[in-house]
Amino acid sequence: MTTTRTHSTAAGQPGARDPFGAHLRHWRTRRRLSQLDLAQEAEVSTRHLSYVETGRAAPSREMVLRLAERLDVPLRERNALLVAAGFAPMYRQRSLDDPAMASARRAVDLVLKGHEPFPALAVDRHWNLVAHNALVPMLMAGAAPELVKAPINVLRLSLHPDGLASRIANLAQWRAHLLERLQQQIAATGDTVLQALHDELEAYPTPQVSHDTPAADTELSGVVVPFQLATPNGVLSFISTTTIFGTPVDVTLQELAVESFFPADAQTAAALTALAAQPAG
Are residues 191 and 260 both part of a single domain? Predict the structure, then answer.
């Protein structure tokens, strides 16, 4: 596994019935490349690329995949490019519950379990909770019941006034951080569902947080944005990392991300260790 990469959709994104040239032009424009730039990247003539984009020439399957690679198109959209060019989709999309995905699911569960006594969770491309370790439900306690019913959207849970928002000590800072991450994802993938989620989150009223506290005083201050959550054990301060599968051949695996939270100070580490040692239930 390796560090995450972001993705997003924009207005005017081609539909399933649009020609290949429209899809290619959309992704080339999104990546801010001229035809000359892309032709040089893909090692084809500018004239041929222009013909492909305008529909005067049909691309080969190899050409479609080469252009998609140079444009860093997500696997889901690579399938759409192939279909638009008249070829069968190449990348499978299966649920993590599919028997064929058992080894991948075990790998995710091992990563989550191995991160205890610190919280870690896995989310899909729309930030819906897929899996988590034992610490996560303890931190979600107190959220409105409708926000913790499946499918749980972790961004909605975090920023909704009836979710964790009123308990996030550095809410303004964390909210800005999450919205910026989401906007970067939208800019890269053009996902309209993510855009709708961004608009929803941005419209939430910001609760007045009475236990506001300054950013964690650690050597990492100024390098990362901490997540500071008020709990019965005091304000716990975290830093987080995001991990993805490095070379997935399945759409679901490429879109799966593991978010791991690390204690930003000794007090948080001690509190989490004590919390994990408590009997279940």
Answer: yes
